Amino acid sequence: MSNSPTPAIRFNQVSRYFGDVKAVDQVNLEVRDGEFFSMLGPSGSGKTTCLRMIAGFDRPTSGQIFLYGQDVSNLPPYERDVNTVFQDYALFPHMNVADNIAYGLMVKKVKKSERIRRADEMLELVRLTGFGKRKPSQLSGGQRQRVALARALVNHPKVLLLDEPLGALDLKLRQQMQVELKSIQQRVGITFIFVTHDQEEALTMSDRIAVFNEGKISQVGTPAEIYERPASPFVAGFVGTSNLIGGEVAKRLTGSDKLFSIRPEKIHLGNVNSQPEAGMVFLDGAVRDVVYLGLFTRYLVETEGGIDLMVVEQNLKTTSMDVLSVKGQKVRLLWHKDHINPVGG
Amino acid sequence: MLNRASTYLYHRPRLALALLLGPPMIYMVVVYLGALFNLLIYSFYSLQEFTGLIVREFTLSTYAQLFEPANLDIFKRTTVMAAAVTVADALIAFPLSYYTAKFASPRLKTWLVIAITIPLWSSYLVRVYAWKLILAQEGILSWFINLLHLDGVLNRLLSFESIGGSSLALSPIGLFIVFVYIWLPYMILPILTSLERVPKSLLEASGDLGAKPLQTFRTVILPLAFPGVVAGSIFTFSLTLGDFIAPIALGNSKFFIGMAVYSYQGTAGNIPLAAAMTMGPIVIMIVYLLIARRLGAFDAL
């Protein structure tokens, strides 16, 4: 995989308004050549609109979109070297699987023998050898998903767009497809842009993630950066769960009243007498609620400043009896200063 | 009591089904199939020329009459008219349905569908007579054609033996215009339904994979909407084939199957010939439906 220094996709001050609604608001973005890039955000955050503008289904109200340096902002979809895997797969119901996959080649007038060869190659890539003659309606959701992927990849696009392609699959199949998508991406070396609202999916597969909120990008970074150093309260809350602490309590703990976030799993739940080690801070409170979840237990602790903190502890030695009996007791929450993450705002 | 009946039927779905379907089935079999069968029987009888009485003996002579040149002409003219009306309706209906299904806002779509179906609320006869006025010698259409200085073209068209006549209203061209108008909703609605079932993402996918709009139309839209077109054509074709009101109301001098049947069973009192004549469109329609079924038209109904 040779990486070109020109970004695969570059957004320059891109906006898209629908009437008064700013679906995408002055977004700047760079997707690198060959990377698995995720656009993560709640519904209505502008991620799908961005994807549709890259595909050409939608045009920016203002700003430019560059595909490997070429301004494609106003090119129709059929003149862009970009292919899409649709949320509902959008397989042609009147064609069999092989014809669906070869569709892009057919409209470009590629010879029939060449079409068949390349469609077979793609069927093998997505592990559906021998399914070519079936109709899409005879396939399961997961199989349709693979056909949609094969149909897009057969054209060797410069960039592959995936619009929540795993949304309709059940959990097991989803996790399996996440691994498979990632491995296919590494094999073909094409830049993937993946739209999802599922933060776990984004964290699992991506090289980098852009977190969208209300038409703007809140943060761009690797999964680790996004998770460990969320740049805003929104990112802290949307990607995983976070406790936000500010005001007087923050001032006592960090010396500044600026808002900071702390992940529930970084907090240790101790008894009221436990002494903090060097570099640790603590907060006293009472356990208000306990949820036993098998692998771990979630505690809701009401602390001094009236702030409710979520704490997650693994059930390494404890049983459900032990953890449930903690409810109502006074506890001391301790954590290391390194895990404190200022979120601005 | 009602509760017990409900429970009784709930546990006997077959009985419930029989009760639901029984009455309409009996009606269909007795009234509809019975009448058709009666017609079939009569077509094998003949008319005594001198007495004007029906001879109730099996004969093929009535069918032989169908193959007389005058009658063959009627079959040919009516079938050509039905086919022409069907093609014209499909050509008009497709773009209209396509716009309504894919581009109109939900609000506009509601209004368009109402506009398409509103003519069906008023009497068929009234609409035919309205067209008689529109098409008349001094009617609004002639006036409009004169305004455009196209009267030369119109007169030229009317001078053709097979489609012309003394005025638009009295010519097969006029009848064609009326048929196209009257059966148009029956073509639009099935096409609209089939186009609405084509998800927009399929069109986007086609473009995304490199197909230009015309290619998308040919390879995706048309094949998926085609069953709707065939379904609509069944309506327009069979309705034109059997209609006798429009030609009679317009006062057309040329005979069509429906008119012939009407006059044979009425003034002429030749029920056997009328019955045999009716078998013509039935056979044509059966052939047509068999072809339509092979084209998958009934998946869209």
Task: Describe what this molecule looks like in 3D.
The complex is a heterodimer of chains A (345) and B (301). Chain A has helices at residues 47-55, 97-101, 103-107, 112-125, 141-153, 171-188, 199-205, 223-228, 233-238, 247-254, 320-324; strands at 9-18, 21-31, 36-40, 62-67, 70-71, 82-85, 159-163, 191-196, 208-213, 216-221, 243-245, 260-262, 268-271, 280-292, 296-303, 308-314, 330-336, 341-342. In chain A, strand 7 (159-163), helix 6 and strand 8 (191-196) form a beta-alpha-beta unit. Chain A has two domains: 9-238, 3-Layer(aba) Sandwich (Rossmann fold); 263-342, RNA polymerase II/Efflux pump adaptor protein, barrel-sandwich hybrid domain (OB fold (Dihydrolipoamide Acetyltransferase, E2P), Beta Barrel). Chain A has a six-stranded mixed sheet with strand order 6-7-8-3-9-10, sandwiched between helices. Chain A is elongated and about 80 Å long. Chain A is α+β, with helices and mostly antiparallel strands and 345 residues long. With 301 residues, chain B is mostly helical. Helices cover 74% and strands 1% of the residues of chain B. Chain B contains 14 helices and two strands, in the order H-H-E-E-H-H-H-H-H-H-H-H-H-H-H-H. In chain B, strands 1-2 form a two-stranded antiparallel sheet. In chain B, helix 4 (69-102) crosses helix 9 (172-196) and helix 10 crosses helix 11. The A-B interface holds A 55-57, 76-78, 82-84, 86-88, 90, 92-94, 103-104, 106-108, 151-152, 155 and B 199, 201-202, 204-212, 215, 219-220, 223-224.
